[in-house]
Here is the input.
Amino acid sequence: MFSIKSLAATAAILFTTAPLQAEVLFWSTQARPVEEAQAMREQVLSGFEAGVDYQPNEDGPWLTRLQAELQAGSGSIDLLGALHGNFSALDPETLMDLDDLGVASKSETFNNLAKLGTDSLQYIPWMQASYIMAANKEALPYLPEGADIDALTYDQLIAWSKAVHEATGEAKFGFPAGPKGLKHRFFQGYLYPSYTNGVVRTFASDDAVVAWEKFRELWEHTNPASTNFSFMQEQLLSGDAWIVFDHTSRLAQAFNERPDDFVAFPAPSGPTGRGFMPVLAGIAIPKTVTDAEGAKALLAYMLKPETQIATLKATNFFPVVDVDLPDDLPPSVKAAGAAVAKMSAASDANPGLLPAGLGDKGGDFNRVFVDSFERIVLARQDIRQVLDDQKGQLAAIMEETGAPCWAPDAPSEGACPVE
Amino acid sequence: MTDAATTLVDQSRTRSSGRWLYAASITLLCAWVIVPLYLLLINTLSAPETVNSFPKSFIPEFDLGSLQFFAGFRGMLEALRNSIVVALLTMVMSVLIGAPAGYALSRFEFRGKELFRMLILLTRAFPLPLLALPLAVLFIRTGLDDTAFGLALVHTTLALPFAVLITFSLFSGIPVELEEAAWTLGCTRLTAFTKVVLPLILPGITASAIFAFVISWNEVFAAAVLTIENRTLTAFLLQTLGEAPMHLKFAGGFILVVPALIFIFAVRKYLFAMWGIANR
Here is the structure.
């Protein structure tokens, strides 16, 4: 059976009129928006000779289809593209070990994450992004005196948003607190590291109470419609928000449509540094792959420097291998790239890692932070009490998964404790 | 004389205010449907900057950029064809299975009839994301996976309750005496059905077919999981639209809505005919 299929695949490569079956099926949760999907097909994957059927999906159908193929023991998916979080929710046994491919990212941290707790690479890091701040240039005159936009503190951000609020009569800070917004990453990767130098250990510390108090202050000057915002580029473009926080690729459209109207800048810093979090996407091959050779070839192709640059232009996700960036990058890439570079090079940089080792509890982990946000900021409940409540749930998740601490929390032996 | 004149005036006044109310309600109902569609059209035909700006103009500027983007989108036409094939298959199957069930429910007494009527609704009680996994496993094993027929089977299951309940009420609206008269005049059960009952309820059956069409057209999750090469338009477009920029959302929405609108427009007289029967 297998040999017939691979014969057919070889035959299809030999004859240029390749039938559909010969295409490598790339089943992805990334580059989903129509324009990005189109750019992936036309600019990134068109250079792969055997042809690629690139199919972006929402997380639900992506996972369901994959699970169905794994359970049925056969399928049509050749290559998986997804975020680290999607992969860590899978059983590593269902993914092929990829060590013998000889490709990996330049970052040891990423390569270790990609092992998913095993001894070998379960996916190959594919591309990375981060969360940054962006502002409408109309907001710049209201910057507090002496504040450097590239080295803001949370206090200055609050003062700035307040000044804009008072001058325009409208709360113009925008926060992606909508149903599809990535608010939990702000708490896990930005607020907590900046104020408590931790995420799990310090979840209910006194420093955390201060952090939430500060965020409440900021919320006073936040557009109350933020609970409906999920892609801050829309509010930047419409003018509903002047100062925003979001994922680089969720801000891209604003910079590409009106590059002269907006600035991108690093996330603010708190008492314990400038917390920020990388986003990591990877590529894996499921055990049920039909065209393993084609999938491996495509995987290697995706990691080539040229492909990585094309991917950057198409998706606003940055390369994970060493590349020389060209000069003709789109405005969004230039703006976001500069902001990320400043953020990671800042003297007080305090990078946090993506939650690791949580397995399928990643969603529950996020839930703890989202619930805390809703109770503290939206329902205005007592901070200390909410944190003490939520602490129990967080501790249960950590104990159940046995996940050790990740930066900026101090390393732990065994499960990361909630102190 | 004067009394009669006042009454006449009063009457005409009541009549004219009634007419006003009638016209106003009709206008409101039409606006309810047409205004969102019109806004969709305007934004589809607007440049990206106009889509994001406010206030909106009510005259489209005929910028075809957003639609052109989709014209170059690979696989659109194929997906459109798949959508139509699956929807037509769903229509045919749900009527073929649903109408006899509706007839049985209205004409025969059998044990468990009430339970059956309840159970038929149960197919809608389980969310598709829950059913999709076992279905997909089964489909992969049986070879139904990634076929229009397989997906149409799932959509038929979703459409069946409507088909059964609509045809049930239609059959109930036709007096059994009509059939009995046909029997006395030499018809068999089958010919009485085909010669007397069927012509009467044909418009209603078409209406239930339209429901099946719309249900199949709108379904995303099963389509996204059960098809890969043969995607339907909804599965193909909707997933990528959720995070797309506004102007493309509008254009994509427009593309999804138009074929369904054309279809419903084409068969609208059957829909009205069904309501005609129900009123009788």
